[in-house]
Amino acid sequence: MKLLGNSYLLLCISLFGFCYAKVEDYLKGIEFERTFSPIEGKVIDVKIAIPEKDYNDIIEKSQLSAQEFGAIYHGNYPEELKYTVKVSVNITVDDQVYSYDKVKFKVDGNNARIFNKLGYNLNLNKKDQFFGRKNLRLRADYFDITHIRAKLAVDLINKWNIPTVQETYANLYINDKYFGFYMFLDDIKPGWIQDIYQLPEDEEVKTLYSCSKSSLFSFSPENARRACQNEKG
């Protein structure tokens, strides 16, 4: 019993110490360029303005029940229900607002569309960037009620100097309606690979694949030819 009590005490001391340390301190010493460092440990506000018709379409069409997804569409979200719309986005960091127009906006994921809380993708114009990135995600992280597991995993990989995505937290608003607390991260696209590995902008990236078929359970040559293609944009 005493041992158990001491274990709880050590856990509480560790958590107390972590809370009062600077969150960004444990990310020091990363060798590759981590452009999200200025927003580390912050909760930013992402406000999206979308035409009312497109907003209503998202509410009506974006989600499927598990029965529809499995029985009708056989685990593949139908192309006719996928769409991208142009929106305006304001991102507030502390007191500074970053504004972007004609941002490509779409619902994220395939299987995740059966959940109550959806994720979203933002693709900024070629001339625009947010802290060095133009492809951004608002991830619902539906199964992690702590909102910490994915963040710790990404930060650890960053700390090990393995190039990967960066994350922080965000409050999401669409047409002034609060949509919830999200993970805000960059997205691995061809442009991300060009930036991270310093490739020429006009060089085609042929090493990033998108495998869209939910039936793909193994990366055999046959399955890869059938279900995978070079990622675009």
TrEMBL record:
<dbReference type="Pfam" id="PF08757">
    <property type="entry name" value="CotH"/>
</dbReference>
<feature type="signal peptide">
    <location>
        <begin position="1"/>
        <end position="21"/>
    </location>
</feature>
<keyword id="KW-0732">Signal</keyword>
<protein>
    <submittedName>
        <fullName>Uncharacterized protein</fullName>
    </submittedName>
</protein>
<dbReference type="InterPro" id="IPR014867">
    <property type="entry name" value="Spore_coat_CotH_CotH2/3/7"/>
</dbReference>
